[in-house]
Amino acid sequence: MIRRLVADGVPQRQVARDLGVGRSTVERALASDRPPKYERAVGPTSFTPFEPHVRQLLKTTPDMPATVIAERVGWTGSITWFRDHVRRLRPDHLPVDPSDRLTWLPGDAVQCDLWFPPRKIPLEDGSKTLLPVLVITAAHSRFMVAKMIPTRHTADLLLGMWMLLQLLGRVPRRLIWDNESGIGRGKRHAEGVGAFTGTLATTLQRLKPYDPESKGIVERRNGFFETSFIPGRDFTSPADFDTQFADWLGLANARVVRTIKSRPVDLLDADRAAMLPLPPVAPVVGWVNRVRLGRDYYVRVDSSDYSVDPAVIGRFVDVTADSHASRSVTRDASSRPMTGSGRVA
C-alpha cells in the first residue's frame, strides 16, 4: 500500500499521516520489495549442547529412534521437543536411496494394486459409487488380469486375488503389494493373509514406503487404463464393467510393450511354466462369520443384512459369502448341519 501510494505521487509525509505509521516505516517499506516480517534472531537453546552428540549418533546409525538417542545423550527435557529436533537433523545423515534397474525372471513375481476408475458404477439398489479394481500384472511377461471388487477389505482382496490367479492358471512365487491396509501394516500381515499364501505355497511381499520402483509396472498400468480404456465408455453394473474390461485387456495384452519389445501373450507361456501349480485344495476366501441367530433372524455380511429361516433362532449360524452370492449354514445343538435360505433384506 505504501509503495503504491508513493508511486501514485502521494508525498511520503502524507502517506505516513494517512496510514498512521511513522516516516521511518515508510522509508523502510520503499527500500524493501516484500512485506515486513518479524524474525527472531537465532540463539542457543537447551538442545544446542546436545546437537553435536546427536549428529554423531545419527552419522553412525541414521535410523536410531529418537527415544534411544535421548537416552544415550542424557536428555531430560521434553521428549516431543527432542523428537522435533532429531526429525530436523535426520535427513542430513540418511544415505542416498539408489534406484536399481530390476530384472524380472519368468514365474518370479506378479505385482498387485488397486485402481479406482474415475467413473461411478450403478448398483442394484439404484445408487452409484466408485469401486476399486484389483489389477495383477505378471512382472516378466507384463500380462494383465483385473476384476472389480466391492471393497478394500481383506476378505474381498483375498477373494479377488484367488479369482485372478485362477485366470492365470498358475501361482507366482511372489505376490508384491504396497502397504495396503487390507493386506497388512507395519511388520504384520492382515488376518487371513498368512493362511492364504500358505495354501498357495507362495510369498506375499509388502514393499516399504516410498519405493515406487519396485511396483512401478502395475502402477503405470493404472494411468494407461484411464487414458485408453475409460474414455467414451458407460457401465450399467460391476459385471458389465468386468465384461468390457476383460475384452479390452485381451487387446491390450496382444500389443507390443515398448520396454520389453514383446507382446505379453507371447511371453505368458514361459512365465506360467516357471510358476507353481494351483493348490489341490482351494484357500478359504470370502466373508466367513459365525453368530448365534437373534430373534430378528437377520445376519450381517459387510454392510448388508440377510434373513434366515426363523426356525433356527437361537442356534449358531455360519455365514459365508463371496462376490456373487451368500449362503448361511446353521447347526443345532447336536451339530447336525441344517441349511437355511438366505436372501437380501
Summarize the structure.
This protein has 345 residues and is of the alpha+beta class. It is built from eleven helices and 18 strands. The protein folds into four domains: 30 residues, no CATH class; 45 residues; 169 residues, Nucleotidyltransferase, domain 5, CATH 3.30.420; 58 residues, no CATH class.
Description:
The chain has 345 residues and is α+β, with helices and mostly antiparallel strands. The chain has 4 domains: 2-31, no CATH class; 48-92; 109-277, 2-Layer Sandwich (Nucleotidyltransferase, domain 5); 287-344, no CATH class. It is built from 11 helices and 18 strands. It has helices spanning 2-7, 12-19, 23-31, 51-60, 66-73, 79-89, 154-168, 193-200, 216-228, 238-252, 264-273, and strands at 109-115, 121-122, 128-129, 133-138, 144-148, 170-171, 174-177, 184-185, 188-189, 203-206, 276-277, 287-292, 298-301, 304-307, 316-321, 326-331, 337-340, 343-344. The chain has a 5-stranded mixed beta sheet with strand order 5-4-1-7-10, sandwiched between helices. Strands 12-15-16-17 form a 4-stranded antiparallel beta sheet, with no helix packed on it. A hairpin with a 5-residue loop joins β2 (121-122) and β3 (128-129). α2 (12-19) packs across α3 (23-31). The longest helix has 15 residues, at 154-168. It is elongated, with a radius of gyration of 31 Å. The termini are far apart. The model is unreliable at 325-345 (pLDDT under 50).
